[in-house]
Amino acid sequence: MGLIVVLLIVGLSLALIKLWSSQPRSKVSKPYFSDPKNRKLQKRLLVLLNGDATTAERLLKQQRQNHQGQSDKWYLEKVIYDLERDRRY
Fold it and tell me: Could you tell me the superkingdom of the organism this chain comes from (predicted)?
């Protein structure tokens, strides 16, 4: 009886570890350009970059690394602000 309980606990523990390890560890939402919430900001960013989605993703990724924990809207606004600011000079 004791061996069955130990095996059951070990099996359950392994199942929980596997389940926990398969869960995403960050609060990353949908990719920027597939999330319809910020469609207007997404379009504005692509216009500023002449449709270069690769550059947009790179700039957004840099901001996400530099300022962790912000919303997707914040990152979009920050990249747009920086691009417009840099073009003034």
Answer: Bacteria
